[in-house]
Trehalose 6-phosphate phosphatase (Liquidambar formosana), 393 residues
Amino acid sequence: MELKSNHASPVLTDPALISKSRLGIHSRLYPQPGAAFSSGMYITIPRKKPGKFDDVRSNDWLDAMKSSSPPRKKLLKDVNIEVASDDFDAAYCSWMLKYPSALRSFEQIKNYANNKKIVIFLDYDGTLSPIVDDPDRAFMSKSMRSAVRDVVKYFPTAIISGRSRDKVYELVGLTELYYAGSHGMDIMGPVTNTVPNVSNTVPNGHPDCMKSTQQQGKDVNLFQPAREYLPMIDEVFRTLVENTKDIKGAKVENHKFCASVHYRNVDEKNWPTIAQCVHDVLKDYPRLRLTHGRKVLEVRPVINWDKGKAVEFLLESLGLSNSDDVLPIYIGDDRSDEDAFKVLREGNHGYGILVSSVPKETNAFYSLRDPSEVMVFLKSLVRWRKKEAAGRS
Ligand SMILES: O=P(O)(O)OC[C@H]1O[C@H](O[C@H]2O[C@H](CO)[C@@H](O)[C@H](O)[C@H]2O)[C@H](O)[C@@H](O)[C@@H]1O
């Protein structure tokens, strides 16, 4: 792990990104100019060149695994500095000069958002629910659910998660918002009649986009750009379950268009074993790639689609893209959320807010420490919008 020296404070660089680039398994794929859309009506999702997998011991998989979601104490040991807790707090405060707290900057955000239509995008794990050892018990608190329910009353809102869409819907339990599961590869969005005329538009007529009716009778659009990978993911999931069954603490989840291999509860001495196991399985699937999340290895299709693309897709579906009157706000804690932060930053359109209690490199603009601060921020947005609405009437 490296310390980035041109920062005002020690900021952990992400060995996962370094290792992924060496292995050719970048979290952001290579868009092929001109290939993204074959016509005004259809997009072609470009396939990235398959990555080459080396032996895990000779590459940085393990570094990446060790650095993902480190506990505070471990983090200090990893960077090899004897830092007292006070010093760590100082480092965090210093980092916050670059990524200010969205709570302390609320006035500034409000001023910028004034008269704009705010669209809220929320990640789930680590953002709406705290990180816990058992992924099946990552529940959202009642107060968080109520805060999100209020947000939905005032702002178009979508949850974009690495989990399957069904699972995240089950955990959130609110019907009034949009859901994107499998890192954005399974989107349930609004039905729109928008005629596509810009390169990032995905029309209703796209073969991966289908009209469907929700249980509540509402018409929605389902967009699943990795549909063809369904059987492959299912097969890989079953193989991963079988091959990791003797590794104590390992857990594999099937998220329909991607799969997760958790090692949070695996003894660190067995991390090379689990890494090797995933590596050996993926060797036979050049159309799949691997990304690193918080103590989780994520197996995904090699397509140019991620949470950033999902944000663009949803904004377009809502008829809210390319407008100066729209302010998208994306709140997330993980590496996969960086794709969305990057879209907002590069488009100079909206704010990414990173949820982190440790300094991290990010494409976000603002920060929040943990899900409890996320809740305060969401409530503040609602309070402000309510007051504004009352003032107008
Ligand atoms: O995009 P997200 O909604 O943040 O989903 C990313 C991963 O979240 C879950 O794993 C993470 O949270 C678990 C529960 O707190 C934790 O035990 C695990 O270590 C974290 O990585 C989910 O289980 C994964 O499948 C998602 O990929």
Notes: Residues 371-392 form the longest helix (22 residues).
